[in-house]
Amino acid sequence: MKLKRALAVTLMMALAAGTAACGSTAAETGAQESAESDVQIAEESAPAADTAAAADDAGEADGIKSYADLVLGEDFTDLTTEISFFSNRTDLDSDDYGGVNWKEYMAAFNEVYPGITVNVITDTNYAEDAKTHLQSGDYETVILIPSIDKADLSSYFESYGSLDVMNGQINYADHWEYKGEVYGVPSTATAQGIVYNKRVFEEAGVTELPKTPEQFIDALKKIKEHDSSIIPLYTNYAAGWTMGSWDDYTGISATGDAGFTNGTLLHEKDPFRDYGDSTHPYAVYKILYDAVAMGLTEDDYSTTDWEGCKGMINRGEIGCMVLGSWAYPQMEAAGPNAADIGYMPFPVTVDGKQYALAGPDYCYGINKNASDDEKQAGIIFVKWMTEQSGFVYNEDGLPIQAGSTETKLAFDNVTFLQETPAKEGEEDLLNELNAESELNYRAGGDRRIQLIIEHASMGDMEFDDIMNEWNEKWTEAQDVLGVTVNE
Question: Which residue, among 388, 393, 401, has the nearest Cα to 73 in the 3D structure?
């Protein structure tokens, strides 16, 4: 059953007709051996026809059917089991969510698979708590993969299949791939930019979207001058995890280099230096520092409210926020002014062009310690969410199903690029440099970004001094790890 754009309408009609919704609460792999090697094969004495029927009905006799081989709506429609799903999307718990919520998704899923109960569990501190769940050994059947070493994927998750096979099924298959096996299926894919209130910008006289850091700071000043009650740039400092968004713009958006994060950066000398042309990581972080130092952010960064900011920007009390496109639909759904919400490219121009990172958000992983029935149900649920739920389209994401082009997101004159994977032998080098330098770049370095805000607010440390400190730590880590540095 295809839901896509018609999902909300279909569900409203179903609910109006009295259809009872199931499930309710939970919302980013792998076996070292293939799934087929772990299952019990039916006894040879069983008739072939009976064996095939049993496999279709219960998912036990012939083993676990892979993601690629699974036919939704035909295979395992009589499977009865209960699974859990751990998600960061707490907003979808609410009946008042402006889009399709978890209750509605689960009701639609059960129209196709009535015997599979999915218990959704959500968490506002997901990035850290998901790792705690994994470390405990007692974690959900389907879990959005947190930031872990790729070498550890097979310790926690079931493989969906080989990279060659999964490349034909999904986009971004290599994101959580290790040694040729794929352990994560993206829940959605996002572009990197800035969510903003179009009316606020227009009323302040900003008629063209800024394309450089200087133009962006000027736009923020105009908003402040037009109406001092509006917060031009909301930092979301107190949430913590939102700070990591700034790192995401320092690669492709700031350099136009698809290999920057997993290649160039690893071997670059002083990658946080001023390149002199308002590009590279230096330019990205300086936007934040300057905005805070100039009073273009909230008065008290320690009191920012993640959930509250959604309604604030919808009402026009905030000009913009630096967040991935995943935040766009949340801001639209937070009030009656969805038409006022827009999404702009990050304001850096490289040699006359703007670029945006297009990549996966959190990815679904299947618990390798789950029972065979639970694993099969988990694969069914993940594939249904990817191909039939309409989740990606509803959340303004970029397509995940291979060959799909359905998306509401579009940047004019912006080049989308995917990050180039690390070369063989360097898959974990970024993690190693992060650990040695303690910078945690693109790996939950929230506190590092918070310190930019604190120093800018207090005026106790110049921006260049912050960047020099990061460069020193990066250089020391490269030296300790014996990394070749390109002068």
Answer: 388
pTM for the structure as a whole: 0.68
pLDDT for the residue 412: 80
What is the C-alpha separation between 50 and 48, in angstroms, rounded? Answer: 5
d(CA 345, CA 328): 12
Q: Helix crossing, 463-481 with 429-437: angle to 10°?
A: 120
Residue 41 has pLDDT above 60, yes or no: no
Q: Which helix (H) or strand (E) holds 116?
A: strand 116-122
List Cα–Cα distances, 400 to 148, 170, 379, in angstroms: 22, 5, 15
Among 44, 20, 26, 181, smallest CA distance to 92 is for: 26
Beta-bridged to residue 415, according to DSSP, are 355
Report residue 487's pLDDT band, with 50, 70 and 90 as the boundaries. Answer: confident
Write out the residue range of the structural domain in which residue 334 sits: 192-359
Q: Quote the tokens at residue 79.
A: 């499977």
Q: What was the pLDDT predicted at 481?
A: 97
> Could you tell me if 295 and 376 lie in one domain?
no
Looking at the structure, tell me whether residues 390 and 273 fall in a common domain.
no
Q: Which of 349, 355, 474 shows the shortest CA–CA distance to 419?
A: 355
3-state secondary structure of 322: coil
Based on the fold, state whether residues 227 and 79 are members of the same structural domain: no
Provide the domain count of the chain.
2
Please, is 370 exposed, middle or buried when counting C-beta atoms within 10 Å of its C-beta (0-12, 13-18, 19+)?
A: buried
Domain end call among 335, 359, 383: 359
Q: How far apart are CA 132 and CA 142, in angstroms?
A: 15
370 falls within a domain:
yes
- DSSP lists the bridge partners of residue 186 as 363
Q: What is the CATH number of the domain that holds 352?
A: 3.40.190.10
